[in-house]
Structure prediction request, 357 residues.
Amino acid sequence: MGARSVTAWIILATVTFALAALCTRLSVAYAHRRNLLDLPGQRRSHSVPTPRGGGIGIVVGAIFSAAVIAVQVEFPYRFMVLALLAAIVVVAAVGWIDDHGGLHARMRFAAHCFAAALLLAVPAMLLGLLFPVPRPGALLLYALAAVVPGLAIVWSINLHNFMDGIDGLLALQAMFLLVALAVIFIHVGQPNDAERIGLLAAAVAGFLPFNFPRARIFMGDVGSGVLGLLVAVAVGWQMFTPTIALASGIVLCSAFVTDATCTLLSRMLRGRRWYSAHREHLYQWLVRCGYSHVQVVAFYMGWNLLIVLPVVCWMNRMPPARMSPGIGAAIVVYALAGLVWWFGKRWCLTRSRHAAA
Prediction:
């Protein structure tokens, strides 16, 4: 990475940060004017009315970043970035409508599936051109091959929405993952990819001062959905890079994936309405037990820095890492995360009962 490239990236990252920060600041005034406020309640983890929808700043920064990346890359990757731009717009539009008055869950799910299809359509078409299958069922085979990544994208959009419940948690988690992936790309000798991932991190950074350590505005569905989309794209980007351990991004996501998935499965097994609003994630239980938002965020970042980061560094200790994809390490990390979630919930429940008594 030459000095000119570094300077150009710093300028682009600064513009991205400034755009995201400016739009977030404007969204505070807009939310107050339109009375877009999240009020304290039984299913909330905050104690004062707080405006929502500030994630539009992240959306604007991400769109600018994606546009810059589209100009930089060549065919066929430019079409993939344009598909990402379209998917961002779809997810952001649905979130924006939901923030302004609510949207039926089926409509949201359909829009998220459409966004995932947009992302996967271009790679599928390119794959068909490069590796044509001389059979009538070729299109069906490609469609089936897209089911798993498509579901993963939709789940990422929704789980990041579920995990956006306290000040700074989602924004800091996204920044941790994006910065970690950028550093890994530099480590394996791919600075251009690191610069592009870094631009997305700059968009999140522009929003963060308005949301942490004390939230002046919440991200809202417009921001959390797009962040979930960007996380899925960044992890997929990494997984298709042969010099990086395959499971690196999956391990980096372990805190959020474990909390959201275990909570969802727990509610389903107990016959709860798993799709309705609730306060049963571990981070919400910790807040209910008296810990501040800053302390809970520190707990999640502690997991990332003390457990996740050393494991990912070990997985990528020498490129090319595909000889050691890290699947075993990922299984161990998720097993440990599951135990932390289970014991954490039990501890919170025990403490709550003692407090009630």
The CA atoms of residues 21 and 206 lie 4 Å apart. The mean pLDDT is 87. The two ends are 62 Å apart (CA to CA). The longest strand covers residues 37-38.
